[in-house]
Amino acid sequence: MAVTHDPAFWQGRRVLLTGHTGFKGSWLALWLHQMGAKVTGLSLPAEEVSLFRQARIDELVDHIEGDIRDMGVVEAAMQRCNPEVVFHLAAQPLVRLSYDIPVETFATNVQGTVHVLDACRRAPDLQAIVCITSDKAYENREWVWPYRESDPMGGHDPYSASKGAAELVIAAYRRSFFAEGGPLLASVRAGNVIGGGDWALDRLVPDIIRAMVAGQRPLIRSPHSIRPWQHVLEALGGYLLIAENLAAGQAWAAEGWNFGPADDDTQPVKWIADRLTQGWGMDGWDQPEQVSGLHEAKILKLDCAKARNVLGWRPVWGLSESLRRIVDWHKNVAQGGDARLISDRQLADYRTSFQQG
């Protein structure tokens, strides 16, 4: 059973990565490239300010711009890549935006997942499919106990509900089409991922970084909310381990998996804001006078015992180190540093930390 990543497995491996222009997809494309994989990316065009553009990810992959809501686009990308491994990350990823565009959110996150999985049925060399959903796919009861993989799917807002529905789609395709022979299929549910190069609107860490780069005190909407914060590389490392085991024919890996921080490393928003502003050298943060009444979960924790005990995965950086890395990344880039080189260095550091345990 793998407890470290195997670069030899990925050398020359054909990988289709949907959502490669996004924050998490860009980091995964960079990691796969470092290990020698041949990556084809399918995604909407990157935002003007994004890790994808800053780190020139298009130079490292076969870059296809397209919408997973179009079945023909997905089929064409699948045929062009003929993948051995598929990572499906493409999504509408924002809770609050889902209130503004619920139809697009469901179409992308649910029907888009159907399109990707159905195209996978006709990929002749495919061995492993890893679908990325969300910790918010669980029916959130606002309790202090962390959610386990066996807990029911749900969702109050359109984003969370769409991710819960995507989990049902994945389970149906696993049982109906990928149960015997052919590729193995897993879903992965990560906590709130953070890291250098995340510029998404209406997310805590990017909002704080944007304000500090502009020399302004950040506005913190819900200082007492609790989320399973973790560096993006922690989650991606788990995804890679799952893919390696699926490709090796390990049927036990074809399930749902949580990847989040250690049980004693979950903190409220206020704790995050304090440390980011201190690390940047800024004097504190403020709360807005008025806060939108849109529903957002106040407490959310993940139980990752299954990943630790069965897969051998474990978080290695922790929240304090993750925040230090974020400040380092953004300070260096703001001072004219090369985002690709900075990202490569942090990725190499993380891989060394993971190997050392």
UniProtKB/TrEMBL annotation:
PROSITE patterns: ADH_SHORT (PS00061). GO terms for molecular function: CDP-glucose 4,6-dehydratase activity. It holds the Pfam family GDP_Man_Dehyd. The lineage of its organism: Bacteria, Pseudomonadati, Pseudomonadota, Alphaproteobacteria, Sphingomonadales. Its EC number is 4.2.1.45. It comes from Novosphingobium umbonatum. This is CDP-glucose 4,6-dehydratase. The keyword Lyase applies. Keywords: Lyase. InterPro entries: CDP_4_6_deHydtase, Lipid_A_modif_metabolic_enz, NAD(P)-bd_dom, NAD(P)-bd_dom_sf, Sc_DH/Rdtase_CS. Residues 16-325 form the NAD(P)-binding domain.
